[in-house]
Amino acid sequence: MYQHLYQAFLNARPNVQHFACHSHHYWPDVTRTAMLEYWDDTAKMADDKWDYIFSTKMPQTQALIANALNVSKPERIVFAPNTHELLVRIHSTFAAQKKVKILTTDSEFYSFQRQSERWLQSDMVELVKVPTLPFESFEQRFAEAAQAQQFDWIFVSQVFFNSGLAIQDLSAFIQTLPKEPLITIDGYHGFFAIPTDLSELEHQVFYLSGSYKYAQGGEGACFAVIPDGNYEPIYTGWFAEFGDLHQRQVGQVGYAQNGQQFAGATMDMSAMYRLHASLDLFEKEGLSVDVIHDYVKRCQLAFLNHLENLNHPLLNTSNLMEQHLLDPSNATLSLSDTGLHGHFLTFKLAEKNVATLAKQLSEHGVKTDFRGDRLRFGFAIYHNPLDYDLSCLSANK
Hints:
Layout lengths: L6 H6 L4 E2 L11 H16 L3 H21 L7 E4 L2 H9 L8 E6 L4 H12 L3 E6 L7 H11 L4 E5 L12 H6 L6 E5 L19 E5 L11 E4 L44 H16 L3 H22 L33 E5 L2 H13 L2 E2 L1 E3 L2 E5 L19
Parallel strand pairs: 1-10, 3-4, 3-5, 5-6, 6-7
Antiparallel strand pairs: 2-8, 7-8, 9-12, 11-12
Helix pairs in contact: 2-8, 3-8
Keywords: Aminotransferase, Pyridoxal phosphate, Transferase
Organism: Psychrosphaera haliotis
Protein name: Aminotransferase class V-fold PLP-dependent enzyme
């Protein structure tokens, strides 16, 4: 239905069933034009391009992101090449010698997992991790842990990268947490995948995401929604006072009065051009997050029904991590209308079986990815569910 928007990627990879959308999403064709637009703008403006980007292209992109997240102040949004840079900058808002007490989970993405564990090794932080499983009780257990001790920083994912399990009502969840700590939501698997409304949260939480996955602009264009507060991160770059460089005073470090206070330094803005192009395309095509999410859910249901017909001993719904999505009230397989979940489905198997299955599927043009004992299948609007074919699994049941 939407494959015409992705002809370049689809034609470059014929005979591939791409179920790794949650890892590297295909880009719509307009992003190639955006890359050339960036080159042409650079040729026309050279150094003057920065004024154009900060005065025109960046506000346009901020507005598109804000619209998707229901953020009332687009100027809260700041860009960076990756979310790691942003989370380290958030950490640098604490006093340099302070040992920061962090509450998080055992299922955060590698950037935060690795960095926080390295901080721990250096005795820079105290780390408390709440297991995400069993997920039925996760939100309650996390809230109880947050209230049980005094934390400086709370860091938690909206959708967990190793399962697709998602916080059901982000606003309600945040209200169960104490107000004193800095709260950061890793929204990378949430933004432009599941409907997200930050209107009640934009003033109090940091929300991190980017375009590598569901926003479909590729790597290099990450962002944070910055809450109220005059923050002065120690880890800072010249973009944080770009508009006031001519007013700098010796011995003083100034900061913007909006999200730009968390900006870094020179970055490749072609990524922002791609992100702008993809979000602008979705707006023009009427592809809201709700429309995309509904289409992906239907793709997931078609996939699960196809899988059930194969009757594979390992790759079946009994090993699906998102069991709560299956509606037991229906005789036929269906996804529950209630309950948010990511745009990928995760099967938990023995680690050796995961690697074997992923290799077997890849050899037959079915591209997935896996993390340890979890095999992940992602879904996108460039899928046609009628094309799903995992018959290669039938030969080796």
